Amino acid sequence: MSRESLFQNILSKKSFLSVGLDTDINRIPKHLLDEEDPLFEFNKQIIDKTSDLAIAYKPNLAFYEALGPKGLESFKKTVEYIPEDIMIIADAKRGDIGNTSKLYARAFFEYYDVDALTIAPYMGSDSIKPFLEYNDRWIIILGLTSNIGSNDYQHFTSEQGIKLYEEVLTTCKLYGTPDNTMFVVGATQAEHLQAIRKILPEHFYLVPGVGAQGGSLEAVVKHGINDKLGLIVNSSRGIIYASDNKDFGDAAREKALALQQEMSHLMTSYLS
Amino acid sequence: MSRESLFQNILSKKSFLSVGLDTDINRIPKHLLDEEDPLFEFNKQIIDKTSDLAIAYKPNLAFYEALGPKGLESFKKTVEYIPEDIMIIADAKRGDIGNTSKLYARAFFEYYDVDALTIAPYMGSDSIKPFLEYNDRWIIILGLTSNIGSNDYQHFTSEQGIKLYEEVLTTCKLYGTPDNTMFVVGATQAEHLQAIRKILPEHFYLVPGVGAQGGSLEAVVKHGINDKLGLIVNSSRGIIYASDNKDFGDAAREKALALQQEMSHLMTSYLS
């Protein structure tokens, strides 16, 4: 999916919502456990109820891997079920030496055939570049994440006063272009978004941490928006676990709709 | 497996060799492609021919994931086939926010039931600690890796002259103990090993990069050994792809044996 198509989807849906499919076998409604593939059955109903509101789905691989190969079957079926025009982000945070990153790229961009993959940058350039060898696919590099532990190394500061995450953003943006590279910037990091926009004016950011993790949507938009919107805001637990009964799909839709309406309103106010 | 058992294995086998099961469907001997599970068939023969020489096997998950759920079945079968007294290191370089790292831990320490898992530290403490909640399992945190890209961020230097990888070693060692935590230190980084031993005198290091990546075994031992040996040296491509014919098992054994003999010799010289 091109950046322009993504932007057009955002305009037509008045939404920059990614629904995080963090589908935990221990948290989904109990009646689904009788299904042949509970994870997929859960995702299917969430997708059916939210696909007009979401411009992306983001399954986090940990939830699927925890069930072994069977969980990966559920992931594959989920990817195949998501409508063609909605971006699929595999949140897998992969990264390895060159020849091995190439294999991860093969896994996600060929076998599972997703649009985008999150990447952990600790191992540097040769761990990242192999993922850029695919046309029409996106890498989403961890920049400044939403969790408490982001303080441990991402704010490590050089003699010149540069923080590690700034170094990551500044150097990684040179490997690709705004048409194939995004960065993760947590919603809990809104106070840094303005400075990050100066480093990366054109790129899209994937913004987790609204909802369960406590980030404010308006602060993210105010400080992070650009003229192609430039933000994909993800909510996982806040949407998909809104109810643990048979009405979970409708409850998820309600939460997604509330976010989409807030997004629509913010787009009117802030999108130039 | 306890640190003492690992050390006893090293003494009795006169080896600190890990064989990397980087089993690439495009590189294994062609006759194996007729088998029902080519990856497992390859691994089985490698294990049969090297299990008396190796104290660990290290499958890198990328090679298995590239084939989808079927590849993970091969990984699972491989883990089950490896003799009980040999450490199994899942080289997966995982790491995510707390609730998600917990799921990766469940995947590798419960479902796949390996002894050790490699961890990428970029996301900080809450991405690492959930893996330490299992008794008798090991986390192996990326410290200073063997690849070219290790220069990009791992050497990022603070105002106080501390490098990022030193910060990672110094802080991460406090999360666990030398009995459940190891660090990756590339064989190509031998000049830094002495300084690293000062930060981490007791810990085991997983040392990749001997062989295909060009690191010297003697330099690693000279600068990195401690009184419980403290080193697991991995070779992948240099052993498993020694031949691409039907004799690949014997050829792999020959390469592994040469390394084990060199290790035995170095243990006599350097182990106090």
Defining key terms:
TIM Barrel, alpha/beta, globular, 43% helix, 272 residues, eight-stranded parallel barrel, homodimer
Care to describe what's here?
- The structure is a homodimer of 272-residue chains.
- Chain A is of the alpha/beta class and 272 residues long.
- Chain A has a single domain (3-270), classed as TIM Barrel (Alpha-Beta Barrel).
- Chain A contains twelve helices and eight strands.
- The first copy, chain A, is globular.
Oligomer: homodimer
**Any low-confidence stretches of chain A, pLDDT <50, length ≥5?**
none
How many angstroms separate the termini of chain A? Answer: 23 Å
Number of strands of chain A: 8
User: If you compute it from the alpha carbons, what radius of gyration of chain A comes out, rounded to the nearest whole angstrom?
Assistant: 18 Å
Enumerate the strands of the largest sheet of chain A in spatial order, edge to edge or round the barrel.
1-2-3-4-5-6-7-8
Overall structural domain count of chain A: 1
CATH hierarchy class name of chain A: Alpha Beta
Biggest interface pair, counts: A-B, 58 and 58 residues
- Annotated CATH topology of chain A: TIM Barrel
Shape of chain A: globular
CATH superfamily of chain A: Aldolase class I
Helical stretch tally of chain A: 12
Mean pLDDT of chain A: 96
Assess the beta-strand content of chain A as a share of residues. 15-25%
Order of helices and strands of chain A: HEHEHHEHEHEHHEHEHEHH
The main sheet of chain A comes to: 8 strands, parallel, barrel
What is the CATH architecture assignment of chain A?
Alpha-Beta Barrel
Q: What level of helicity do the residues of chain A show? A: 40-55%
